[in-house]
Every structure is written in C-alpha cells, then in structure tokens.
Amino acid sequence: MENLQATHAAQEKTWETLEKSLTSRLNEQQNQLLAAQDKERFAQMALMEAKSRLLRSDQQLTEATQTIEQITSELESLRKNRREHDKEVTRLKKIIEENEEQHSDAMSKARRDRVNLENQLDMEKVRSEVEKKKFQSQVETVQKEKERLLWLSRSESVGSSASIFNTDVESVASSSDTFNHVDSFDRSYQLGSTAVYDTIRGASGSALLENLQSQLKQRDGEIAQLQGEINTLERTRSSMAEEIVRLTNENEEMEVTVGQVDELTRKLKEVTARHDAVLTMYGEKAEEAEELKLDLEDVKTMYRNQIDSLLRNDYVK
C-alpha cells in the first residue's frame, strides 16, 4: 500500500512536471504562433506595399517611356525644322549676295551713264547755242548786205554796184573766218559759208537771197535735228532716273529681305536653344527611367526574399 502510494505520488509528480513542461512548451508555441502571425501580417503589409510600389514604378516607367518617346518625336521634329531653316537661310543669303552684286553693278552703270548723258547734253546745249548765235550773226550780215545792194542799185550803175558788192562780200567772208575755232560742225559750216560767198560773187542779188534762204533752211533743219537729239537725251535721262528709282526700290526690298534673314536667324537660335533644352530633358528623363528600373529590380528582389522567408517559416511549422 505504501509502495503504491509512493508510486502514485511519484507518477503524479512526474505528470505534474510533464504537464508543466507541456504547458510551458504550449505557451512557447503560442508565443511563437503570435510572433509568426505578426510576422505574417508584417510580411503581408510589406508585400502589399511592395506590390503598390511595383505598380507605381510600372506606371512611372510607362509614363517615363511615353515622355521619352514624345521628347524623341519633338527632338526629331526640331531637327527637321532646323535643317529646313538652315536651307532657307543659306538660300536667302545666296539670293541677297547675288542681288547685292547685281544692284551694285547696275547702280555703277547707271551713274556712269547718267554722267555721260549729262556731259553729252551740256555739250549739245553749248553747241546749239553757238550755232544759233552764228546763224543770227550771218542772217544779220546778209540782211545788211541785202539792204546795201538795194540802196546801191538805186544810186549807181550795175557795173559799179557789182564791184562794190564784191568788195563788201569779201569783207563779210573775212569776218566769217573768225568762227573757224569751233568744232568740226562749225568747220563744215564755214565751208558752206565759203560756197555761199562764192555764189554771191558770181550771181545777182536775187540768186544770193535764194542761196541764203536755202542755207538758212538747211541750218534750221540741222538745228531741229540737234533739238531732237537733245530731246532724245532728255528722255534717256528721264529713263535713267526711273531706272535709279527702280534700283532704289529693289535696294529697299533687299533690306527687307535682309531683315527676314535676321528674323530667321533669330528663330534658328530659338530652335537651337529648344533643341538643347530637349536634349537636356531627354537625358534627365533617361536617367530617371534608369533609376526607376533599378528601383523596380530592388522591389522585385525584396518581394522574392519575403516570399522565400514566409515559405521557410511555413515549412518549419
């Protein structure tokens, strides 16, 4: 009986010890379970956060890719516009250089022609004035001779009148020799005058008048011809003035074209600045996209590590 009681007491004590041990292990397992549940919740939260970051990273990567594509398209458009502007500027510069050269040559030729025409016109005016004065002098001389012949015909005989007439005509011829210093046109006139005086010596007073009238008509025709030439020179001068006005207008148009080239140059500089800015932005976006890719890889790695940790914990349990 005592042995049974002792055995029972020992067994009871053993069961109590075992119960305490099991209870302790149960509590420990419960604590571990709570800790595992906490870890699981933390892992779930981390997983959800990782998924959210992954989605945001994917979205940012997509936006960055779209932005890069848009910037690339704008960059290509700017490059195309720049090439077109370069071609236009080159074409306009070439046109300006050609027009400036043509304008300079035309202006130089117009100035030379104008000076030559003015000099020629002045010479013709001087020659015309000399001819007019000479004709007036000759007409007055002939008129005086006519009056003298008429007076002599009334007072003297025909023979003595002819003698006096010849003497007076020779004096008129000698006085007309003073015009020999004028140009070739004047010398031709002197030859004609000599012919007139030769006719006077051998003809009557009426024949003299007819010859003088014929010579005067001839000289009037020459004066009219000279006047026509003067009018032609005047018209040419007016035409040259119109040409100068036209060239001046072309010069003003060229100045406007130069202003357009300056405007195109300014726009080209603006396009170049925008091009450089787009290149800088493109580089920044490319770096940002690369960083997003690296962040995405980090998030994926962390996500895989957390899943592996959870799987190991479940396997241990």
From TrEMBL:
Pfam families: TMF_TATA_bd (PF12325). InterPro entries: Growth_transcription_reg, TMF_TATA-bd. Keywords: Coiled coil. Residues 19-127, 209-306 form a coiled coil. Residues 202-310 form the TATA element modulatory factor 1 TATA binding domain. The keyword 4Fe-4S does not apply. This is TATA element modulatory factor 1 TATA binding domain-containing protein.
